[in-house]
Design goal:
Layout (H helix, E strand, L loop, with lengths): L1 H5 L3 H14 L6 H13 L6 H25 L2 H12 L9 H23 L3 H14 L19 H28 L2 H4 L3 H32 L3 H21 L5 H4 L1
Helix pairs in contact: 2-3, 3-6, 4-5, 4-6, 6-7, 7-8
C-alpha cells in the first residue's frame, strides 16, 4: 500500500481516496485504508521514517486523550497510573506498527473523543464518533455503550439514559449493517448466529482476563529472552518513569488509600 501511494502525485492520490470513500471500500469501512493512503502520501520520501513518526504522533495523541479521560474521572495520581497502563498495554499483538497506528489507533481516537464528548454533554458528537469508528475499525464500537456510566451519576435517571443510549447505538449499527450489505461485505451478506452473537460475547468474556494476564506474562517472557539492547531500554524506561513519578506524584500513591 505505502510504496504505491508514496509514488503518486496529488491528482492520483485524490482519485484513489475519492474512490474508496464513495464506494465504501474495503468492506464498508473506507476510512481504514484512507488513513494509510493519506499518511503515506504526506510522509512520502526515500525512507519510511516520516510514516513511523506520523504513527507515533497518532499513538501519542491517544495517550494524552486517555490520560485526560482518566483525569476527568478521578485524581491526578489515578490518571497517571491509568496512562502508564495504557502505554504498557501488551494484549495487542499487532506486529506491523504502521497498520497498528494508521488504522487501529484512529478508531481508538474516535472512541476517546466520543467519551469526552459525552462527558461534555455533546452527545451528537459522540454518535458521530461512533459512525466514524464503524467506518474505520468497528471492533471498538460497542465500547461506546458504557459512555453514560462515565458520568459517575448513579441515580434513577441513569436507567433511562442507558436505555436511550443503547437504542441509538443499535440504530447506528443497524444502519451500518444495511450499508455494508449493500456494498457487498461478505460478513454482512452471510451472517450467522456465531459471528453475530456468540463471537462478540466470547470476546467480551475472555478479553478482560487475557488483557490482565498479559501484564504478568509479558514481563516474564521478556526476562526469559533478555538481550543487551533490552537491558539498556529497560534502564532508560525506568529512569524516565522514576522522573515522571517524582514530578507528578510527589505525595506517593495516595490514590490507593483514597
Amino acid at each position: 500500500v505505502y510504496p504505491k501511494v508514496m509514488g503518486m502525485n496529488g491528482g492520483e492520490y485524490l482519485d484513489l481516496l475519492t474512490k474508496h470513500l464513495v464506494m465504501l471500500h474495503p468492506h464498508g469501512r473506507p476510512l481504514s485504508n484512507s488513513f494509510s493512503y493519506t499518511f503515506g502520501f504526506l510522509g512520502k520520501g526515500d525512507t519510511f521514517i516520516d510514516l513511523y513518526l506520523i504513527g507515533y504522533f497518532v499513538v501519542l495523541v491517544n495517550v494524552f486523550l486517555f490520560y485526560w479521560l482518566m483525569r476527568r474521572l478521578s485524581n491526578q495520581s489515578f490518571a497517571l497510573i491509568g496512562g502508564i497502563a495504557f502505554v504498557l498495554f501488551s494484549a495487542d499483538t499487532t506486529q506491523a506498527f504502521l497498520t497498528h497506528s494508521h488504522q487501529i489507533h484512529p478508531s481508538l481516537l474516535f472512541l476517546l473523543l466520543g467519551f469526552h464528548s459525552y462527558l461534555s454533554g455533546k452527545r451528537g458528537l459522540t454518535y458521530l464518533c461512533g459512525v466514524l469508528i464503524l467506518l474505520t475499525y468497528e471492533t471498538l464500537f460497542f465500547m461506546l455503550l458504557i459512555a453514560p456510566l462515565l458520568k459517575m451519576r448513579w441515580d434513577k435517571k441513569l436507567r433511562k439514559e442507558l436505555l436511550t443510549h443503547a437504542v441509538l447505538i443499535v440504530l447506528i449499527i443497524g444502519g451500518m449493517y444495511v450499508i455494508r450489505s449493500f456494498v457487498g461485505d461478505f460478513r454482512s451478506v452471510e451472517p450467522t448466529f456465531s459471528n453475530l452473537i456468540v463471537t462478540p460475547l466470547l470476546h467480551m468474556i475472555e478479553g478482560p482476563a487475557v488483557a490482565m494476564g498479559t501484564y504478568f506474562y509479558r514481563p516474564v517472557l521478556a526476562v526469559m529472552n533478555f538481550t543487551s539492547e533490552m537491558i539498556v531500554a529497560i534502564l532508560v524506561a525506568f529512569l524516565m518513569l522514576y522522573s515522571v513519578l517524582i514530578h507528578f506524584v510527589p505525595e506517593g500513591w495516595k490514590w490507593v488509600s483514597d
